[in-house]
Design a protein that fits this description.
The protein is an alpha+beta fold. The protein folds into two domains: about 10-150 and about 250-284, no CATH class; about 155-245, no CATH class. About 20% of the residues lie in helices and about 30% in strands. It contains six helices and 13 strands. Strands 1, 2, 3, 4, 5 and 6 form a six-stranded antiparallel beta sheet that branches. Helix 1 (about 45-55) crosses helix 3. The protein is globular, with a radius of gyration of 20 Å. The two termini are about 35 Å apart.
Length: about 280
């Protein structure tokens, strides 16, 4: 539920950078995918600016990719620039590693549930007076001031795989359903993500061929899904749903390690010097 507390420094919505990594190297069908939430901004323009450089921020260099396309900021829906963009309406950055993996970066929008405020020194697009370049200022604009000493947000991420559309499982969609300061609030929201209105989980089970909720008595000590997964469900129509609570990969050790392995796997390797030199920059 969106917060009613809005003002000049409290944006109505939050904008999240969501990378999808498609592992075509190991699975040519495109069904093996990983999803991360990198950062959140209080304006779309700020999120767009951050997304354009986010692969560098997690340890890649431009030369680590055989192809790296960044959608022009002017490519609005329906424009000539948008019509010429080949990677889909929602994709802002497309990258393809030499080994074949694809990186698709998009922006998800959610209500500002916790009435988070913009950082005052970034609000309004004014200069910080630090000599920062325009590009760097752009990606730093719209950052948020988190309460209660929080250093990061907790995200509710719903992944849908439609096996009716493609038996391989490559027909997938991932959406951020909410962002919360407190992990307990995110877990509560995750458990309600697939429920209709005031429906409880017991009622929801009748609408699904399978409905697994972390905390069910039958799964105590043997939860078969990832530790950040709150709910897994299968619809009668063949759609598979997973609802998880995520944190930025540079915060969570497990996610950071996953991304570091991705960086290492995409080194061009074995080529001394020039554009073929492998990246040595770690995820920080």
């Amino acid at each position: 539920m969106a917060s009613a507390d809005t003002g000049p420094d409290i944006p109505e919505n939050l904008f999240h950078t969501l990378p999808t990594i498609v592992d075509l190297h190991r699975d040519p069908s495109g069904s093996t995918r990983s999803y991360y939430v990198l950062s959140t901004r209080g304006t779309f323009c700020a999120a767009q600016a951050y997304s354009a450089v986010s692969l560098r921020r997690i340890g890649f260099r431009d030369e680590d990719f055989a192809q790296l396309d960044v959608r022009p900021a002017a490519a609005e829906a329906g424009s000539e620039e948008a019509a010429q963009w080949p990677h889909g309406e929602g994709v802002l950055v497309y990258a393809r590693a030499v080994s074949g993996e694809e990186f698709l970066l998009s922006i998800n929008t959610t209500p500002n549930n916790d009435a988070l405020r913009l950082n005052s020194h970034h609000h309004g697009g004014t200069s910080t007076g630090t000599g920062t370049s325009g590009a760097e200022q752009g990606e730093d604009e719209g950052t948020l001031r988190l309460p209660d000493g929080a250093q990061f947000l907790h995200y509710v991420l719903q992944t849908t795989i439609d096996y009716n559309a493609d038996r391989s499982g490559s027909a997938q969609a991932a959406d951020i359903e909410g962002a919360y300061v407190h992990r307990a609030d995110a877990w509560t929201a995750a458990h309600r993500c697939l429920l209709a209105g005031d429906e409880d989980e017991d009622s929801a089970r009748s609408r699904f061929a399978e409905y697994d909720s972390r905390g069910d008595a039958g799964f105590i000590g043997e939860w078969p899904f990832d530790e950040d997964t709150a709910v897994h469900a299968v619809a009668e129509t063949g759609q598979n749903f997973t609802v998880a609570v995520k944190t930025p990969p540079h915060i969570e050790a497990k996610r950071k390690a996953e991304l570091r392995r991705v960086v290492e796997r995409h080194k061009l390797g074995g080529e001394a010097g020039g554009a073929g030199e492998a990246t040595k920059q770690a995820v920080k």
